[in-house]
Amino acid sequence: MGRVPDDRAEAVFEDYKAAYSLQQAIAESERCLYCFDAPCIQACPTGIDIPTFIRKIATGNLKGSAKTIFDSNILGMSCARVCPVEVLCVGDCVYNREDSPPIQIGKLQRFATDRAYEEGWSFSEAGEPTGKKVACIGAGPASLAAAHKLRQLGHSVTLFDKRDVVGGLNITGVAPYKIRADQAEAEVEWVLGIGGIEVRTGVSIPTDVSWSDLESEFDAIFLGFGLGPDRFIGGEEGLSNAHGAVEFIESFKLGPVDLSGVKRALVLGGGNTAVDAVRELAGLGVADVRMVYRGDESGMSGYSHEWKAAKVDNVRGVWRTQPVGYEVEGDRVTGVRCVTVDADKKPIPGSEHVLPADLVLVAIGQAKLGELVSDLSGVEVEWGRVVAGEDGATGRPGVYCGGDCRNGGKEVVNAVAEGRDAAIAMNAYLMGAN
Description:
Elements: H1 22-29, H2 39-43, H3 50-58, H4 62-72, H5 76-82, H6 105-119, E1 133-137, H7 141-152, E2 156-161, H8 169-172, H9 181-192, E3 197-201, H10 211-217, E4 220-223, E5 242-244, H11 245-254, E6 264-268, H12 272-283, E7 288-292, H13 304-312, E8 316-318, E9 321-329, E10 332-340, E11 353-356, E12 359-362, E13 381-382, E14 385-386, E15 399-401, H14 404-407, H15 412-432
Parallel strand pairs: 1-2, 1-4, 2-3, 4-15, 5-12, 6-7, 6-12, 7-8
Antiparallel strand pairs: 9-10, 10-11, 13-14
Helix pairs in contact: 1-3, 3-4, 3-6, 4-6, 5-6, 7-15, 12-13
């Protein structure tokens, strides 16, 4: 298993949300009303008992607080940093209904989980060996959560990943002002610390190892391979300064990047990846960063609180603008050809224009990887997503799935919940099998 290098461009970023001190954490936790129906719990995909972990901070039981979190979400440290709490637990805090500041649940969760890491507290141990073996395809949050729960239940687990580093999106794709790759790497080590999880990196499934070989070696398979490469508008081939946004984010999270000649950058798209990309470019020192979106500001799919922060960083939006091609000199983009669109997103005749750029990142979505399971009869794919029941079971006995390959690209916390719940269902299958 490889490690993230030290010369990462992301190292210039500091946490966007400052950590609480002990005094701040206690003061904030004492505001919690310990609601009987606790809407914040319902808003958390992993169902953390939020009022209880907060109450334990208030009473000085920090170890108990951390345990409450990790019992539901073994990736609670990263989720405390990367979850869009504004639209999940914090967004459902009852204080919002009283025009009062909601409890800062994410920051309190970060305080408790960080303390657990600092103190080396351990809350998990492997169960009695069952003799059953499970393969997890992909080593991102869904597979890590599944693997950990399976080990608690006594099954041996092997993680397969095409990369040399383990951690998936948390390592390669999450904005560094939320969590850096080295922090995510520490979390991987925390999860693997339960023991009994083998890691095989640099292995592509089913190219290097076939599905039939996996089914011969393992009693069950968990599919957690995430999403595929960036989608493009067309014409990017061979251009040295036009990249997929996900590809670019991975490059600077895992190594150095040279932006010395970039004064103007355009990010095409209006989703969360696009918002992350513009904030990252601004943080890396690009003076003029713009997000180009064919809809209005109010209609963008990226979270409004993230876009608000981007505007504070002097990022600008170019609205109702549809990219249609590139102006090119040699192997470099000099501008993006665009048309203005109306409220129905239809091109307005005569509105063609060029936006100059030294760097273009395309953030209009990622390919789905459902074709990877085309040889697994019984596993259905719709719109590129693997079809599964609520427990993650596919139509093929012993094959389960979770994370982006199943949900199409939701949050890390959703992947954790799906991986954990699929592991519980896999346990029932394995222990009921002859």
